[in-house]
Write a structure and sequence with these properties.
GO terms for molecular function: ATP binding; corrinoid adenosyltransferase activity. The chain is of the alpha/beta class and 181 residues long. Helices cover 40% and strands 17% of the residues. The chain has helices at 19-32, 47-50, 53-61, 78-99, 110-115, 121-131, 149-154; strands at 9-13, 37-42, 64-68, 104-108, 139-143, 157-160. It binds adenosine-5'-triphosphate and magnesium ion (MG).
Length: 181
């Protein structure tokens, strides 16, 4: 592995399309340098069931990948289940970080776990601040809309993706393989 610099918190937020794909591109770049990589997805349901392309690729490469969500928060009991799973997901991420097993971890749609109050933003940010200086802390790539200001403050890089136009808006076109999943 070439990258021996201090770990970075990279955050992709905003309403435009491209946050998750940016994170996956970052992971692909790191993987190419021999980095051990992991993905924790919040909110999103089983990627096997949903036939997610980036998940398939990650599995082929041997990237660790776990989901901690059950889908849209406004459907049925999902909000409650997503909240419980988000807590488990954050515990998993902390274990991954503490064992030093990975050099890059993607926390996809993680901002929702904070903005929806599933996790305490202050506690999460304090934990990251307290551990970031330790040996083997990985680069964290975080995605999701409405990133809380406290998270913006601890991130080293924040890109806000602004929607100029989107092909699914007012076209009747549905989400499709290769483009959306
Ligand atoms: P992608 O996964 O393509 O990088 P994203 O992570 O930025 O997109 P999310 O906010 O996580 O987008 O939304 C999930 C899905 O909703 C994506 O498949 C994306 O294409 C779609 N999407 C994102 N922005 C819009 C929009 N403005 N209108 C309709 N669909 C959108
Ligand atoms: Mg996304």
């Amino acid at each position: 592995m070439q990258g021996t610099n201090k770990p970075l918190i990279l955050l992709y937020t905003g309403n435009g399309k491209g946050k998750t794909t940016a994170a996956m591109g970052q992971l692909m770049r790191a993987f190419g340098h021999g980095a051990k990589c992991a993905v924790a997805q919040f909110i999103k349901d089983d990627p096997e069931k949903l036939d997610i392309g980036e998940y398939r690729t990650a599995k082929t490469l041997g990237v660790a990948w776990k989901n901690f969500g059950c889908g849209f928060t406004w459907e049925g009991d999902n909000d409650k289940v997503n909240a419980e799973l988000a807590k488990k997901g954050w515990e998993q991420v902390k274990r991954w970080i503490s064992t030093g097993a990975f050099e890059m971890i993607v926390l996809d749609e993680f901002t929702y776990a904070l903005s929806l109050g599933y996790l305490d933003t202050e506690q999460v940010c304090i934990w990251i601040e307290d551990h970031k200086g330790k040996n083997d802390f990985p680069h964290l790539v975080i995605t999701g809309r409405d990133a809380p200001p406290r998270l913006l403050a601890i991130a080293d890089m924040v890109s806000e993706i602004v929607e100029i136009k989107h092909h699914l808006t007012r076209t009747g076109r549905k989400s499709e393989a290769m483009i959306e999943f």
